[in-house]
Design goal:
Blueprint lengths: L7 H23 L8 H8 L3 E5 L4 E3 L7 E7 L2 E4 L22 E5 L4 E2 L14 E4 L3 E7 H10 L1 H40 L3
Helix pairs in contact: 1-2, 3-4
Length: 196
């Protein structure tokens, strides 16, 4: 019986798909939210993760949009931006004509994740916008999928939720520290303006 060799086109297609899946598993393994999961758990998770490619300059999500889930950067870079306060341009002046881009809060690269608050807050509206700075490949885990994981595989869901709680707590502490630092710098100038 002659051996069946797949058509080269299909062989290559399946090979690339397997390589991409292996790359996704490797990326998930090192992501802080998933680092406690076994290889078996990661394989299960990879079945509910969505992958999407974004071109340079393409919006991943916008300010005020409903948050759906967390994104892990598999390849590329993402800019996280926030809106300048009302009446203040992105350059800090009052001239809104200058405000053609929002102030950048962070640039994130491979292995970073963002948007995690949307996993725990059902009516969360995005307080930032995310824009791909170069061709970027993201993995997304969305709230309904996390709920399904918690129902179908409670131990996997519990590990993810525990890590998510730790990440949110750490980011809250960092934000609090930054606000305290900003407040220290604000007080003297505020006192001078008030004539104190």
């Amino acid at each position: 019986m002659p051996s069946r060799v797949p058509h080269p086109l299909f062989g290559d297609l399946f090979s690339r798909r397997n390589q991409a899946k292996a790359g996704l598993l490797e990326s998930l393994k090192y992501a802080p939210l998933f680092k406690d999961l076994s290889h078996r758990d990661l394989r299960y998770l990879s079945q509910v993760i969505y992958e999407r490619h974004f071109e340079a300059g393409e919006s991943i999500f916008g300010l005020g949009e409903r948050g759906l889930g967390v994104y892990l950067i598999l390849e590329g870079r993402v800019s996280i931006r926030s809106r300048a306060p009302e009446g203040v341009a992105a350059d800090g002046t009052g001239d809104e004509r200058v405000s053609q881009s929002e102030p950048e809060m962070a640039q994130l690269g491979e292995g970073s994740f963002f948007g995690e608050l949307a996993l725990v807050e059902p009516d969360h509206l995005r307080t930032t916008q995310a824009i791909a700075l170069e061709p970027t490949r993201l993995a997304g885990l969305f709230q309904p999928d996390l709920h399904a994981i918690v129902e179908r595989k409670p131990s996997v869901g519990a590990k993810i939720l525990l890590r998510l709680g730790e990440v949110l707590a750490r980011r809250l502490i960092e934000t609090h520290e930054r606000l305290k630092t900003l407040e220290k710098y604000r007080e003297p100038s505020h006192a001078r303006r008030e004539g104190l």
